[in-house]
Amino acid sequence: MRKKDFYAGGLMILFGLVMSLKGPSYRLGTLMHMGPGFMPTALGILLICLGVAIAAGSLGTADGEDEDILPENREWLAWACILSSPLAFMLFGAYFGLAPATFACVFVAAMGDREATLKNTIVLSALVTVFGVALFSYLLQVPMPVLTWRGL
Amino acid sequence: MIATALTDLWYGFGVALEPHNIMWCFLGVLVGNMVGVLPGMGPLATISILLPLTFGIKPVGAILMLAGVMYGAQYGGAICSILLNLPCHPPHAVTCLDGFPMTKAGRGGAALGATVFASFVGASWGITEMIFLAPVLVRVAMEFGPAEICSLMLLGLLAGSTLARGSPVKGVAMTVLGLMLGIVGTDIETGAERFTFGMTHLDDGIELIALALGLFGIGEFMNSVNQVSTVNAKYANVTLKDMRPSREEMRRTIAPMFRGTLVGSLCSLIPGTGPTIASFVAYATEKKVSKTPEKFGTGMIEGVVCPEASTHSSIQGDFIPTMSLGIPGDAVMALLLGALMIQGIVPGPQLIKEHPDIFWGLVASFWIGNIMLVVLNVPLIGIWVKLLTIPYKYLYPSAMFFVCIGVYAANNDMFQVGETAVIGLVGYVLLRLGFHPAPILLGFVLGPRFEENFRRAMLISRGDIAVFVERPISAIFIALCVLLIGLQIYVRLRPKKPGDMAVPAVVAE
Fold first, then answer.
1. Which residues between 234 and 273 in chain B have a beta carbon less than 8 angstroms from any beta carbon of chain A?
2. CA A44, CA B165: separation in Å to the nearest integer?
3. Which residue, B237, B274, B258, is CA-closest to B156?
């Protein structure tokens, strides 16, 4: 049994279930006068079938080489950093403006690398901030204040 | 017919040669060429990052630039493959096989020179094909009703998902997922809000840029972080003088170049077979035709030139269905089509007639852009090679900033930055489970139009599903779909011969 394919099929079945169970609540309609719920329900059922096919196919085949769901090197810190980087951008952008948001976004993302040192990261973040503010705020006129204070 | 085509092309050159359009085209190919060299940054991520920056410029300039990024990246990808043995972009994976041995033997410069030349020939043929084929296709497509459009889209979606990399069933599942994501938001016909889960930010649907940057930006960074080692640029010292192939090498280049071009243009006619498939089919063909097949892999210039010519001819050919029918063949084309839609231009057969400046300007700019690339590549190779040594630890945090600000600038909406992060996480999970996320974009872009035409076809036929096989043109498309699925099942069930998978295995990584 191929573990990876089995879970892959399971995930598709889950997505399909959400669609096909929620779809009918938007009114199905008839084939001639389709309601907004028709397409999602149909696609949901199709996705469930595909998921079953993927999962069923996995049962008959032998294990492949790379069957771990998680990769060999688990970069939990790096993953967390990359995913929190946009959140840092949102938070700092909403309260303090573009420059702090840029700095925070790059800083958080860069800390995910194994070889990152505090000094390198600060220099990189500062460089990107200067360049980014010049490009987006002055050249492209993105309507976001460079520096502001909206309180907490 | 030739006269009208030439007049239109003349008009196109008029559009493309306007100073600001030339500037956008130049900027596009330059950036494309650069990111083509950078490891871990594909044309998909680059086009999506640049997409919000093009909102301010006119549609013609925007599409010239974004298309420039796409074919510019192909020239850069070849540099990576030949000089560093790094298949940064899948279409160039095959080029490594003979390109890198040539570099080790000290002929890397010559291989690059011949490649640039062959690429230009391949691209030129693809453009010529576009000039003559697109108007013919449009004339046919003008007769299409909703039923035909629907079956054609179905064929496009099926081909795009089953012929791409990886398992066909998983590809189809990704397309269906894309279609579903396209449904999120307010239904255009009834105004019902679907799958917004009470979030008003989702009323206008999922943003194309957020989806593309989540899947191909954040998802890709999560996959590559701490995995990319610094490149070995030991052999990468190439001077201008080295780039001139010897007379003997030039002679051996000519025939493979035309064979590659032919293979590429044939591949581009089959929907869904993009440059990646074209390049390894070309390599396999060249090996078969050659008198010394055993020497392939040891630095044969034929094995470098043929797949590269094929890649370029197929990329230009891919624009034909995208621009004339509004049916993109792969994710990059879907993204370009999405860019046009954001600019308020409706894709489909009426595009060439309603916006001749976009179509003919684009065609003309292909030539201008390709010439620019040939000229650029020669003196800039040294700089590109230096770029390659930028460590990934500096590259991806900077790219993260471009992702965030790009998504924000699209609508000045912070919510979408968070949306991108969530999509990125889902994209990475899908990647780990062995899915290729590219067909999601295909389904997402075509989804709303598919639903609209399906509804219309059902309304006209009074709910009779048989309309798809009763109308002759539609029946042909459905038959092709069935044939496609049948072939996939046949390939699946056939006992595998050893050696069959040799080339695809290289391409997959």
1. none
2. 24
3. B274
Average pLDDT, chain A: 85
CA distance B326 to B150: 12
Report how far residue B131's alpha carbon sits from residue A91's, in angstroms, rounded to the nearest whole number.
Answer: 50
Q: What distance lies between CA B109 and its chain's CA centroid?
A: 27
Which residues in chain B have Cβ-Cβ distances shorter than 8 Å to A30?
463
Question: Quick one: pLDDT band at residue A65, thresholds 50, 70, 90?
Answer: low
Exposure class string for B342-380: b at 16+ Cβ within 10 A, else e: bbebebbbebbeebebbbbbbbbbbbbbbebbeebbeeb
Gap between the Cα atoms of A91 and A100, Å rounded: 10
Whether A27 and B192 lie within 8 Å, measured CB to CB: yes
Chain A positions touching B393 (Cβ under 8 A) are 110, 113, 115-116
Containing B102, the helix (H) or strand (E) segment is helix B93-104
Q: What does the pLDDT look like over A15-48, one tens digit per residue? A: 999 888 888 888 888 777 788 888 889 999 999 9
Is residue B349 within 8 A of residue B325, CB to CB? The reply is yes
Spatial distance between the Cα atoms of B343 and B58, rounded to a whole number of angstroms? 8
- Provide the angle, in degrees to the nearest 10, between the axes of the packed helices B59-84 and B43-50: 150
Number of CB atoms found within 10 A of residue A144's CB: 20
- The pTM score is 0.85
Interface test with B, best of A5, A7, A89 (most B CBs within 10 A): A89
Contact B328, B47 (CB under 8 A): no
* Pairing status of strand B193-194 against strand B185-186: antiparallel
Query: In this predicted structure, what is the pLDDT of residue B70?
Result: 87
Give the pLDDT mean for B402-428: 90
Which residue type occupies A37?
A: G
E-only strand ranges, A38-95: none
The amino acid occupying position B495 is P
Q: Minimal CA–CA distance to A104: which of A118, A80, A87, A119?
A: A87
By C-alpha distance, the chain A residue nearest B435 is: A8
Task: Give the count of beta carbons closer than 10 Å to the beta carbon of residue B245.
Answer: 22
C-alpha span between B478 and B279 (Å, rounded)? 28
- Vertex A129 angle, CA A123 and A134, to 5°: 135
Q: Per residue, what are the HEC states of B165-225? A: CCCHHHHHHHHHHHHHHHHCEECCCCCCEECCCCCHHHCCCCCHHHHHHHHHHHHHHHHHC
Spell out the domain ranges in chain B: 2-229+237-492
CA distance B426 to B214: 9
Identify the residue whose tokens are 């391949």: B122
Cβ-based contacts of B421 with chain A (< 8 Å): 83, 86-87
